Amino acid sequence: MGKVYGYVRVSSREQNESRQVIAMHEMRISDTNIFIDKQSGKDFDRPQYKRLLKRIKADDLICIKSIDRLGRNYAEMIEQWRVITKEKHADICVMDMPLLDTRRDKDLLGTFISDQVLALLSYVSENERRNIRQRQAEGIAAAKKRGVHCGRFPKPLPENFEKEVRLWKMKKISVTEAAKRCGMPQTTFYEKARKYERNLGNSR
User: Which residues in the chain show pLDDT less than 50?
Assistant: First the structure.
């Protein structure tokens, strides 16, 4: 038996990784051997995961809380499983699914069963994510039809915005100066000023 490592991933910096870390501690994995990525699996650019792959050696063990921590979709989960078990010759333990523990039943049948369970769970995990995205899209579309606002509300314009727009249009100040006085990036000021002018023209 080699070293034991834990891998934790949360989808954003706002999410809390403590639940996964506690599970690693219960497996007696030290903090120095726990690798944590706080970013979406969208582009799969996970620096800590890459560090972990470089460190592990044959007979080491990687523990993950659930199978979807391993990849962003069915194909990626299968590929990362292959890299760890076939290329690195290390073991994987999926804590939420005891059947996905490559330390058990290392004979041909045991490996076959583990691979089949992995394929099924990876597919189910990816399919569930697709269903969630579809339900979210349908919910947003239905809300828009009812006139419900979706997404963030725009920030209110500063009190001096109209004044600075007039000064800019009269060429008394530059767009850079106008934006600075309003506390906005220049591109934002220009965009809002154009929109303000259009709205003003439509109201006449």
Answer: none
Task: Give one word for 155, left, alpha or beta, with left for phi > 0 and alpha for psi -120 to 50.
Answer: beta
Specify burial of residue 114 (Cβ count, 10 A radius: 0-12, 13-18, 19+). Answer: buried
Instruction: Determine how β-strand 34-38 pairs with β-strand 61-64.
Output: unpaired
Give Cα separations from 22 to 3, 6, 71, 94, 100 (angstroms). Answer: 19, 11, 21, 15, 20
Residues sharing a CB contact under 8 Å with residue 119, sequence separation 6 or more, in sequence order: 78
Residue with tokens 């194909």: 75
> Which residues in 43-201 belong to E strands, given as ranges?
61-64, 91-94
> 15-35 burial, b for 16+ CB within 10 Å, e for fewer?
eebeebbebbeeeebeeebbb
The type of residue at 194 is: R
The CA distance from 105 to 93, in Å, is 13
pLDDT value of position 56: 95
Q: For residue 24, what pLDDT is reported?
A: 93
SS3 6: strand
Q: Which helix (H) or strand (E) covers residue 82, if one does? A: helix 74-82
Q: What does residue 64 show for φ and ψ, rounded to 5 degrees?
A: -130, 150
pTM of structure: 0.56
Q: What is the pLDDT of residue 104?
A: 74
